[in-house]
Amino acid sequence: MKYLLDTNIVVHFLRGAYRLDEKVREVGIQNCFVSEITLLELEYGVENSEPSWQERQRVALDNFIEVFTGRILPIREAFNLYAKNRSRLRKAGTPISDFDLLIGTTAVLHKFIIVSDNVTELSRIENIQLENWIIRPKK
User: Fold this and answer.
1) In the predicted model, what is the mean pLDDT of residues 61-77?
2) Which CATH number goes with the domain that contains 91?
3) Burial code of 50-62, b = ≥16 C-beta within 10 A, e = fewer?
């Protein structure tokens, strides 16, 4: 199986949370991909962070990009699928944010499983396969 890691998963992965490093090793890092949109969102996160954190976050992001080189999916091919889903969801009164929809439709296009903690929204995309690798302690 091939997996497209949503931005929220990558953020937790970079923070070392939820034992996501173990899950990535389990499925094989060679089977894990990210969208250009995720990199865009991560770049914004670095620029928007406190100056005292920026250098550390920049290094972490650069290292992440280096590891994922060759497994960064472009979004252009998903534009038609994105437009169809966006129109359908708007008419149904259940829109999804543009970035989430672009990442989700990219996963559908490539027949990848999207890994996200945003299951409720993404599940509205037609033909999407979803997994959530974040396991929170029960309250």
Assistant:
1) 96
2) 3.40.50.1010
3) eeeeeeebeeebe
